[in-house]
Amino acid sequence: MSDIEKVKKLREVTGAGFKDCNLAIKEAEGNLDKAVEILRVKGISKASKKMSRSANEGVVAVSGDEKKTSYIEVNCETDFVAKNDDFINFVKELSELNNEKNSNLDDLKKAKMKNGKTVEDTLIALIAKIGEKITIGKTKTISNTSSINYHYLHTIVKDNLAKLAVIVSLETKESSEEVKTFGKQLSMHIAASNPLALESNLIDKSLVDKEQELVAEELKNSGKPDDIAKKISLGKMKKFMEENSLLTQAWVMEPKKKVKDVLNELSISDLKIKEFSRIKIGE
Fold it and tell me: Mean of the per-residue pLDDT values for the chain?
């Protein structure tokens, strides 16, 4: 293989520019594997222009069925590694084990993988092989006896691995196509609108307090009379609560309606949104 061919191959593998690849091939004296390592160490190797070398890259994997569904976040330093076959195969198997262990991290780390080693030992070996920091992030299992789970994956990396995942649990005895369509659409809505809670009174108090501080700071030097400033503050906080509560959010599919309106229009008396969870890599 000529040097030009090696440079071309190195660009395909790492996503780095021609000049960087050419210099790496020369420094590695034609050894491709060594050239890849040189680029990685220099922080040049990348899978795309938007690649970040922070630990906020990685994937979320979803496993399970409509009665019990789990997700697990696995972080790495670069998007390049997030698409690596060894990394993907590890996360896929890990995801199934996570669903079995109901997202209990202690039990998961001790669980045996197909290679006969524990998850913890397999992870250490994978870090040594790939040469990047890899960590297990957030996990969640949703399982309700009287509910059906729906999930949605956005920016799919491969199969059940993506950059964003949503699980939503609907409680009802009905199993019509209407309910299934609503479940799928609701999952997509949650992915796009990122609600903080089902209802406004369930939003974390610390988040509400922080927003109140920001509003107060904004109005502090506005020069408006106190009574007017207070009304503006109440209006802003009401809007914040509505826009971040799932039931009062504008329905993504038809923004003139709220989620609760769509729920009521289905006219299914026992249909309730039991719970939901959304996770996005980097958030």
Answer: 88
| CA 64/CA 114 separation, integer angstroms | 18
Dihedral angle sign, alpha carbons of residues 202, 204, 207, 212:
positive
Q: Are 125 and 113 in contact (CB under 8 A)?
A: no
**Per-residue pLDDT at 87:** 95
CA angle 12–47–42, rounded 5-degree value: 95
**Look-up of token digits 């994937």:** 59
166: alpha, beta or left? (left if phi > 0; alpha if psi -120 to 50): beta
Spell out the residues 6+ positions from residue 100 whose beta carbon is closer than 8 angstroms to its own: 111
**pTM, to two decimals:** 0.76
Q: In this structure, which topology does domain 3-42 adopt according to CATH?
A: Helicase, Ruva Protein; domain 3 (1.10.8)
Which pair of structure tokens corresponds to residue 172?
């009802």
CA distance 14 to 44: 9
Amino acid at 47: A
Report angle CA 139, 61, 178 to the nearest 5 degrees: 95
Q: Which single residue is written with the structure tokens 């309730």?
A: 272
Tokens of 93: 């198997």
Overall fold of domain 57-166: Tetrahydropterin Synthase; Chain A (3.30.479)
Kindly give the interhelix angle for 18-27 and 3-14, rounded to the nearest 10 degrees: 120
199-251 pLDDT per residue, tens? 999 999 999 988 888 888 878 777 777 778 888 888 999 999 999 999 999 99
- For the chain, the structural domain boundaries read 3-42, 57-166
For the record, the structure tokens of 62 come out as: 């979803």
User: Taking 50 as the threshold, does the pLDDT of residue 44 lie above it?
Assistant: no
Tell me the pLDDT band of 43, cut-offs 50, 70 and 90: low
In which band, very low, low, confident or very high, does the pLDDT at 45 lie, cut at 50, 70 and 90?
very low
> What pLDDT, on a 0 to 100 scale, did the predictor assign at position 21?
84
Residue 279 has pLDDT above 90, yes or no: yes
